[in-house]
Design a protein that fits this description.
By secondary structure, the chain is mainly β. It is 0% helix and 57% strand. It starts with a strand and ends with a strand.
Length: 127
């Protein structure tokens, strides 16, 4: 699920699709239009799910895709190793996600957590 927006509408901290991967925008630099060309934007972004840095260079008036990122809540049903079995609080669907290393001590059974869902991928996010 994605939608199309113009590059000039993007802001730091929002999301953008880079190489078909949902990313968080870390910085945007815009150049002034020249004598023979339009203004350009350089977007530095980090992947939500893989953590890789990506950059996009595009005309300010060009269109790009923005992923629809949903923040949902779930209850931890059980933990085995580094995998947590979760139940969505709205749909009551159960699924499993790996627990990131920095959240290991904060994810416990019976506790409610938040997770991100975008482009068919999910990730535990306790911010």
């Amino acid at each position: 699920m994605k939608q199309q927006v113009e590059v000039k509408e993007l802001k730091e901290g929002k999301y953008v699709l880079a190489d078909d991967e949902p990313c968080v925008i870390k910085s945007i630099q815009k150049s002034k239009p020249g004598k023979h060309g339009s203004a350009k934007a350089r977007i530095e972004a980090v992947g939500i799910f893989d953590g890789q840095k990506r950059s996009i260079i595009s005309s300010v008036s060009a269109k790009t895709y923005v992923p629809i990122v949903e923040r949902k809540s779930a209850q931890v049903l059980s933990i085995s190793g580094n995998i947590a079995q979760l139940m969505d609080m709205e749909t009551y669907a159960t699924f499993e996600l790996t627990i990131p290393e920095d959240y290991k001590d904060r994810v416990t059974e019976g506790k409610d957590i938040t997770y991100l869902e975008a482009m068919g991928k999910m990730k535990i996010d306790l911010r």
